Amino acid sequence: MARHGRLITSPRHGAGRAPTVNDVAEAAAVSRQTVSNVVNSPERVHPQTRARVQAAIDDLGYRPNRMARNLQARASRLVGYRIPGGSSGGNPLLDRFLHALTEAARADGYHLLLFTPDDERDEVDAHADLVATGTVDGFVLSETDYGDSRVSWLSERGVPFVVFGRTNIDVPYSWVDVDGRTGVASAVAHLAARGHRRIAFIGWPEGSATGDRRAEGWVTGLTDAGLGAPDPALCVRGEDGPRTGAEALDHLLRLADPPTAVVTASDLIAIGALAAARTRGVEAGAALGVVGFDDSPVAPHLLPPLTSIRQPLEQVGRTIVGLLTARIAGAAPDPDGVLLTPELVVRQSS
Amino acid sequence: MARHGRLITSPRHGAGRAPTVNDVAEAAAVSRQTVSNVVNSPERVHPQTRARVQAAIDDLGYRPNRMARNLQARASRLVGYRIPGGSSGGNPLLDRFLHALTEAARADGYHLLLFTPDDERDEVDAHADLVATGTVDGFVLSETDYGDSRVSWLSERGVPFVVFGRTNIDVPYSWVDVDGRTGVASAVAHLAARGHRRIAFIGWPEGSATGDRRAEGWVTGLTDAGLGAPDPALCVRGEDGPRTGAEALDHLLRLADPPTAVVTASDLIAIGALAAARTRGVEAGAALGVVGFDDSPVAPHLLPPLTSIRQPLEQVGRTIVGLLTARIAGAAPDPDGVLLTPELVVRQSS
DNA sequence: GCGTACGTTTTGATCGTTCAAATCCGCTCT
DNA sequence: AGAGCGGATTTGAACGATCAAAACGTACGC
Q: Residue A115: its chain B contacts at CB < 8 A?
């Protein structure tokens, strides 16, 4: 409570207008530049003067105006992020992702600015607008499809940006991604270590880069675990969601030689699989190992609590912001990609 | 594609620096103020001049610099939103809520700025900082507890803000909320109309304002439907999550006179209830009516697809932004609260 | 022909900050 | 005493825009 007082309370000198360098300068009987120096390069100012100015700053509750600073610095210290449209169907990771980005940005003196294209303009225009008006210094992109038009556009114009995920665009750009293949492979390894020999995979339809890599992880994992060539019958794919999980598991359990464990491409699919298992009287965790992907907030609350592959989003956020601020600072090194490893969170379902 | 060209491409006059009013003025052989007028008050400028200036603007790809404008206007056109910490356990509505806010803000010429308090400072300080530095013009608050310190702090200092949800603070402030009581009551009415007579409620622990109001809706709904006094045995409460739903439903179905339908305080609870029903061989939708709350993205993909109470977040966003911009504009009318009505989305589970 | 009015355009000042260069001051050295 | 020096501080200009007021024409009425 007491600490807030320093900041902007006690506006003894008129509650209307925020104090400026000039106000402080006058109060401390120095020039505005000296005030500025006290704030930005205290070592240049005589200790005695510094103390006097600092006292005035504290007294008036002076804080440098951000807009004025930004204008002078020709930078906004804002990073744009296009908030995905509602159509994408609710991303359970958005919460953590945004928090991680915001936190990482704060540590570097940046803030995240959310935007969304208006109906008449397309996506690229929305980005162009923010750059042209100097509203943002760069972008964080996510959910980039194959051939995302934003990547090439931004890249061509030298606008700083970092992508969460990878695309197949062949222009140089920086990206950060989580290695889904390794993640799924580690889940397979975990299940194999628990004695499972027939391990199935329920994933998304072929054609999405992320989905395909997760499916590859199943193959890799089986091979690495020495379980021989993967049985194609144990790989089922469908749209994301519990229904796919339920139907796929039903199908798998009806096989002549059914799996004893299943890895899924998402927690949503796993939820469906858990439900289907219960319906058939198969006890998940004991008779059937189940592993999800993304460690969504529900995972620990499911019955049984769901083992899941957790993306290191905090690290993702820090890495993205690190790359981005480096680019903004003009350090335009060879753009590079960073691949982070997810972590298996083991719970009772496996 | 062609349209992008207008904005900032074709930097014929040096790719380095964005064009300013002065550049345009020089190109069109007029003064900077005339350029400014063409942009902001075209009617003041002679049509012929206007055309010439507009041509220069288009040619150079001029867009007024936002920081400069903001400095002069002493407004940032940014609205702060503190992104909830990870501890809150993943809000399935955040996605839609942020999108709605962003979209509504855009329509009014605002952007959303995300922030989070750093570890050493408390929440109020984080807000104070943004105000003192002129970084934001106002705030949108959510997840305000009873006695949230931010509300009184902001209110005392006349900082514009609007709360999503209600608190019990007795200072005047504007808020927008969704009427959970009416929502649950309408679900009860819906189930009664389908012939259900014994309708249960599974909700959150007593003590949260939102949770209590949803529970009240159950009472109201039963009374309004003429089903007599609610049976206390049919109201079960526990922490949010599928587990609570499963355990509560198990308990309810074991009663001497079990319910034939259940309304829950969240989709997560409903998920658990659906799973428990399956385990006991009760077919949800047919033998047991189930209604969730929030219409989270999973709801339509559950088995059976879940009837749920959907918050009108788009409307919430527009209302919040409307109230907020009015306050920022100085129109400081009597702060008021707006209560919006949720909508029941009927699917197979009921 | 001259004062006035109006429509259009330009000039000056300002928003709050920082950079760059100039000034001031006390001190040493010759 | 005057030049030289270096630390501390101040002044001038700029960032890019807008507001307010002045200036400029041109046309009109008397």
A: 102, 106, 111-112
Domain boundary assignment for chain A: 2-64, 74-179+314-341, 180-310
Could you tell me the two tokens for B105? Answer: 């803000």
Amino acid present at B350 = S
Q: What is the CA A45 to C1' C27 distance in angstroms?
A: 19
> Fold match between B74-179+314-341 and B180-310?
yes
Question: Would you put residue A284 in left (φ > 0), alpha (ψ -120 to 50) or beta?
Answer: beta
**Binary contact (A128, B7; C-beta < 8 A):** yes
Which CATH fold topology does B2-64 show? 434 Repressor (Amino-terminal Domain) (1.10.260)
End-to-end CA distance of chain A: 48
CB B80 within 8 A of CB B321: no
At B191-235, the pLDDT tens digits run 999 999 999 999 999 988 889 999 999 999 999 999 988 999 999
Lookup: tokens for B45 = 């400028």
pLDDT in tens, A284-333: 888 999 999 999 888 998 888 999 999 999 999 999 999 999 999 986 66
- Pairing between strand A174-178 and A337-340? parallel
Please answer yes or no on whether B66 and A135 come within 8 Å at the CB atom. Answer: yes
pLDDT at residue number A88:
54
From A242, A278, A279, residue closest to B302, measured CB to CB: A242
For chain B, which ranges sit under pLDDT 50? 1-14
Architecture of domain B180-310: 3-Layer(aba) Sandwich (3.40)
Looking at domain A74-179+314-341, its CATH superfamily turns out to be Response regulator (3.40.50.2300)
Taking CB atoms and an 8 Å cutoff, what residues of chain A touch B99? Answer: 83-86, 116
